[in-house]
Design a protein that fits this description.
490 residues; alpha/beta; 8-stranded parallel β-sheet; two-stranded antiparallel sheet; globular
């Protein structure tokens, strides 16, 4: 392919790197993780030659993804007994039908956290002349960057690229466009722009593959007053960041401003409150990123749904068995629910954006504990699929990792974690989110299986061209560049 986005096959289909979503400083790979990438590349070379393929040809197949996951398994298992692993048959690395059976699409996938940057948005008016925010990101070097204008590179992060990443290069059926914390003047994606992007897909036979949040920070003047206008855009939830505020100070959902926010949402008939927890933007925001307010607010408003984005996870900290003494991470969410008497599978939902991507690739044992605790205490019906893409590129690698992930028998027996079955994965991938987002799955499947996007995807699958690249910052310099215009982190 003359237009191949990675003609030499330099990138692996399962992306193990330091990329963050801009909400935490990128954490470099350990020597073990660097070795995992090296082993995966060597194995891809060897198997491609064995099959008579070029490395790129091999890597874009399901067998290429299977080979990469098997290499990661081997490196994670060195010298230890991992609590989690990718359940992939050895033969799947060379047998294409077997690889497709194990890693191919078999579920309805509803991703409740996606992002993109509008390359011509009003937010650019706040960027000083001569500055080029996001220009040092790897994905910002695509062919579209060669267009006219000093900031043409932002087209590489645009809605069109977003749609390719999500709907052509991954198995995602529906995605929610979410928002980042910002001043009212500095949003990199406004609700009006999000509606326009949704229209790109909806013009294709009304396929309704994109849903919208409305950003509200109740500690920012004007946001609560704007909620009625936001509802008019057909939003499915209000999204808030308790660790953010225009003066740098966060808030609790149980504060007067938090309670007033929930009451206004209930009055407007919007039952979903998406709350960013975990992934603190810095020391000053750390306290308000924890989950101690979630149980009390959920108990106070049993008719509202509280969707905990990132599940309270703190990047870089290992997850172990539930520890009631821990005041952050998933454990803090669990403690808050237990102390408030909020039972599993009630009105609190745990969303996996960024958390799954970070722990599953880097530390399968932490991933096993994290998922096990969420299933046990939040409920098997209340864990929601989210990927935080575009920051991590196409979400397909996260999908394939979750589709094959298994909690070890030892951790299941010791801590009461469930086995990762096909039914449980189907719940997380999309069935669980159908309840709070009020989806008619029968109607949705009618158009996601036959609409113009489905036909375009079937045609694209004949000659797939994924880039296997990530968008977000990979080092401190890129992180600071992103933070400079986003007001403290997306």
């Amino acid at each position: 392919m003359e237009d191949d986005l990675d003609p030499h096959g330099l990138r692996l289909p399962i992306k193990l790197d330091a990329t963050s979503n801009g909400e935490f400083v990128p954490i470099p790979l350990s020597e073990r993780l660097k070795k995992a990438n090296h082993v995966a590349r060597e194995q891809a070379d060897r198997l491609a030659k064995k099959l008579g393929l070029k490395r790129r040809e091999f890597l874009v197949t399901s067998a290429g993804a299977a080979s990469t996951l098997l290499a990661f398994n081997a490196c994670h298992a060195e010298g230890q007994r991992p609590g989690g692993y990718f359940e992939v048959s050895k033969d799947a690395a060379t047998e294409f039908e077997l690889a497709q059976a194990e890693l191919g699409k078999k579920e309805f996938i509803f991703d409740v956290q996606g992002h993109f940057v509008n390359p011509t948005g009003a937010w650019l008016k706040t960027v000083p002349a001569g500055q080029k925010p996001l220009s040092n990101f790897e994905k910002a070097q695509c062919e579209l960057a060669k267009g006219p204008g000093d900031r043409a590179y932002l087209n590489c992060l645009s809605g069109g690229e977003f749609i390719k990443d999500v709907f052509l290069d991954s198995d995602t059926d529906i995605m929610v466009l979410s928002f980042v914390p910002s001043t009212r003047e500095g949003e990199p994606l406004t609700i009006e722009e999000a509606v326009a992007t949704r229209g790109i897909v909806e013009r294709m036979e009304g396929s309704k593959r994109l849903m919208l949040h409305g950003r509200v920070n109740p500690n920012q003047p004007g946001d609560v007053e704007d909620m009625e206008r936001l509802k008019g855009f057909g939003i499915t939830a209000f999204k808030t960041y308790t660790q953010w505020g225009p003066s740098g100070a966060g808030f609790w959902m149980t504060d007067d401003v938090g309670v007033a926010f929930v009451e206004k949402a209930r009055k407007l008939g919007v039952r979903n409150i998406a709350i960013h927890k975990g992934l603190p933007f810095g020391p000053r925001s750390y306290e308000h990123s924890t989950c101690k307010d979630i149980g009390p607010i959920a108990k106070r408003f049993p008719d509202m749904n509280f969707l905990i984005y990132h599940s309270g996870y703190v990047a870089g900290k290992a997850e172990g068995p539930y520890d009631p003494k821990r005041t952050d991470g998933v454990d803090a969410l669990v403690t808050s629910l237990l102390e408030a008497g909020v039972r599993p599978n009630s009105n609190v939902y745990a969303e996996l954006g960024s958390t799954w991507r970070f722990v599953s690739m880097r530390d399968p044992t932490s991933a096993a504990h994290m998922m096990g605790k969420l299933f046990k205490y939040v409920g098997q019906d209340n864990v929601l699929w989210g990927t935080d893409s575009i920051w991590y590129g196409s979400p397909q690698d996260q999908i394939q990792a979750f589709r094959t992930f298994q909690i070890s028998d030892e951790l299941q027996a010791r801590h009461g974690y469930p086995k990762m079955t096909a039914d449980l994965r189907r719940k997380v991938f999309g069935l669980n989110a159908a309840k709070p987002y009020n989806l008619n799955l029968g109607a949705i499947r009618q158009y996601t299986e036959t609409d113009a996007m489905a036909r375009e995807k079937a045609e694209y699958a004949e000659r797939p061209n994924p880039h296997f690249a990530t968008y977000g910052p990979k080092n401190r310099r890129e992180f600071m560049n992103l933070s400079a215009w986003s007001g403290g982190g997306p």
